[in-house]
């Protein structure tokens, strides 16, 4: 997709809707002061690579905002979308060969794999942080290398337990429990009623990583300690593996090969009573023209992911941030594009259009009405505020990024669930795989 000034004239309705959204949330008056801008280079044209949307409102609003940017600056922006699994390798290739999109929306700590290939974004990040109430701590950890910002956090596709309320109540629970012990009991009760649950155990960038890291950390297990020493093979990790093995017995068949779209399809088809996912399932049902889907939406509820024996949130959510590459001929235009898209007049209507599919990285956006206009959205509001970082509790860098890209944690749990290895054997193998990347 490529946009010019002429394209803008053809999208009046969409832009008008965005403007109405801005007035409704009051962003123009609340954040109008202290405007920074970067002067685009003469003749600048940009290419953006981003992950493929899971909710239509995200893409529609992003495109509308991009057209507004082109109208304002004259800078054409070509948008290319790739599947979630393909973004990371394509970004790595671009960094290594020194050619590709000017801006890439990547995953987790991708910037830390090739920090010397990226344009520093410190001035932009500090401006946005000051203007919008500050970045959440996990965003600073992901976005910064030392004192320099090398990525610009967009937020996270937050994950919650998504469940059919009527089936959960029929199984004897008022809502889906938010502790691991209660979660397992409810899953067993649902399975006994003929309503299995299901979560991704395949190499799913979002769903597999999110729920399995959350469980691992919730039992006190982790890949490395705060000195980057591998500690995966621990009693706490084995307890987490034993727990997921027992939970797996309540799953619908096939989850060992599930990727990020499979649980969406299974839930909407009525094959599972609950899963861990973003708000995209609810969005699909709520916005459908099918009366059956609209009726299903009334029965869909959300609660935050379960807390384990450690007694506090240990969430990992699918974090995404923008990178500007040094090979770009138009770094100022790229930074101005990001500034424009992150400003409240664009960011908050975009969140609303996607009903909170991406949880914000900046504290001011907690006040976006999207989080309270429908109570079913609210559990997703604090996903970034509450989350830990991949590679917890060590430092972000090449090792943490490479270890996650290798799906070490996901594979460890899948091996146990498949019966290929005992919890002890799986933990030992995962520790050895981790040590290939972490050499202290």
Which keywords apply here?
440 residues, alpha+beta, D-Maltodextrin-Binding Protein, domain 2, three-stranded antiparallel β-sheet, 11 strands
Layout: helices, strands, pairs:
Blueprint: E1 2-3, H1 5-8, H2 12-25, H3 27-30, E2 45-51, H4 56-73, E3 76-82, H5 84-97, E4 103-107, H6 122-131, H7 137-143, E5 144-145, E6 148-149, E7 152-157, E8 160-164, H8 165-170, H9 180-192, H10 207-218, H11 235-248, H12 262-268, E9 274-277, H13 280-286, H14 291-299, E10 300-304, E11 318-324, H15 331-342, H16 344-353, H17 383-386, H18 398-405, H19 408-418, H20 423-435
Parallel strand pairs: 2-3, 2-4
Antiparallel strand pairs: 1-3, 4-11, 5-6, 7-11, 8-9, 8-10
Helix pairs in contact: 2-16, 4-16, 10-11, 11-19, 12-13, 13-14, 19-20
Structure, explained:
- The protein folds into 2 domains: 2-156 and 319-377, Periplasmic binding protein-like II (D-Maltodextrin-Binding Protein, domain 2, 3-Layer(aba) Sandwich); 160-316 and 406-435, Periplasmic binding protein-like II (D-Maltodextrin-Binding Protein, domain 2).
- The strands form 3 sheets. It has a 6-stranded mixed beta sheet with strand order 1-3-2-4-11-7, sandwiched between helices. Strands 9-8-10 form a 3-stranded antiparallel beta sheet. It has a two-stranded antiparallel ribbon with strand order 5-6.
- Mean pLDDT is 93; it is low at 2-29.
- Helix 4 packs antiparallel against helix 16 (344-353), helix 10 crosses helix 11 and helix 12 (262-268) packs across helix 13 (280-286).
- With 440 residues, the chain is an alpha+beta fold.
- It is built from 20 helices and 11 strands.
